[in-house]
Write a structure and sequence with these properties.
Helix 2 packs across helix 3, helix 3 packs parallel to helix 5 and helix 6 crosses helix 7. The chain has 278 residues and is of the alpha/beta class. The protein folds into two domains: 180 residues, Rossmann fold; 75 residues, DNA polymerase, domain 1 (Orthogonal Bundle). The strands form two sheets. It has a six-stranded parallel sheet, sandwiched between helices. 38% of the residues are buried. Strand 6, helix 7 and strand 7 form a beta-alpha-beta unit. It starts with a strand and ends with a helix. The chain is built from twelve helices and eight strands.
């Protein structure tokens, strides 16, 4: 049995900057500071963190609970219209192949699909509503659960365990996101990590943090299903070493070439034999 947690922005959908626009307008209305989100990076952070950072940038002091509550309330008032504008303007997009992927996963009796997102729960639901993807998710971890993304993921797993009525080992939990912060959070929690490049992440930072799987999107489901253990690898690679290599060097080798250490060793022997004959 497996739990698969999906990030939202850049992983399931691209909402055309609706969240950023709503936060900008909320801060301007409450504190008079325009385009506050131009002064820091929101990608990969929880809404709690982004709201606090926006307040500090606008007011030069730490926010109180009331300040954050006011920002949250104003943000949620503005977000629906920003999402609707993105849809109307044709800049609200679903990541390629995500419908087919979620439909397949939803039919697997031993797979449980949830959200692991930095969005506060109400914001997550508002962003996902136009996509038609909400029907696939019955639980999740959200930006309102914690400032720390790994704790958001752990919270999602605890909710799943409560619903299902059993405990899960970390080896059976898979995180799919689009930024290096998704990878870091997954590793901190002890979970697997897979990344889509067709999101908002920095490719160099993603590579440096070494997720187990990287793909442009979900148009080709084969690597995703092999990674999840839902399909046999056509090259017959051993499941244990393929998914959980012992070192980053081994991982890079498996991830990029689809070979295992036995293949690599045999190749080296062949090269030595050729050299010796020469």
């Amino acid at each position: 049995m497996k739990i698969i947690l999906f990030d939202i922005d850049g992983t399931l959908i691209k909402a055309g900057g609706a969240g950023t626009k709503a936060l900008n307008k909320a801060i301007e209305k409450l504190f008079g500071a325009k385009n506050i989100c131009d002064t820091f990076s929101l990608q990969g952070c929880t809404d709690k963190t982004n709201f606090e950072t926006a307040f500090i940038k606008a007011c030069s002091r730490k926010p109180s609970k009331k300040d954050i509550d006011n920002i949250t309330a104003e943000y949620l008032k503005l977000l629906p219209s920003e999402v609707a504008k993105s849809v109307k303007e044709g800049i609200y997009k679903k990541i390629k192949g995500i419908n087919r992927f979620l439909l397949f996963l939803s039919k697997q009796k031993d797979v449980f699909i949830g959200l692991g997102t930095g969005n506060i729960k109400d914001g997550a639901l508002l962003k996902l509503k136009p996509s038609g993807l909400l029907k696939f998710f019955t639980f999740g971890g959200y930006g309102c659960d914690s400032h720390i993304r790994s704790r958001v993921l752990i919270k999602a797993v605890k909710r799943a365990e409560k619903i299902i009525g059993r405990k899960f080992e970390s080896k059976d939990i898979y995180i799919i996101g689009d930024t290096h912060k998704d990878i870091i959070a997954a590793k901190e929690a002890g979970y697997h990590s897979g990344i889509v490049f067709d999101g908002f992440g920095d490719k160099n930072l993603i590579m440096k943090n070494a997720p187990e799987l990287m793909a442009d999107d979900f148009s080709n489901l084969t690597p995703w299903l092999i990674w999840l253990g839902l399909k046999k690898d056509p090259k017959g690679i051993r499941r244990g070493t393929y998914v959980c290599p012992d070192t980053p060097i081994e991982h890079a080798h498996f991830g990029m070439t689809g070979m295992d250490l036995g293949d690599m060793g045999e190749g080296i022997k062949k090269l030595r034999r050729i050299k010796n004959k020469g």
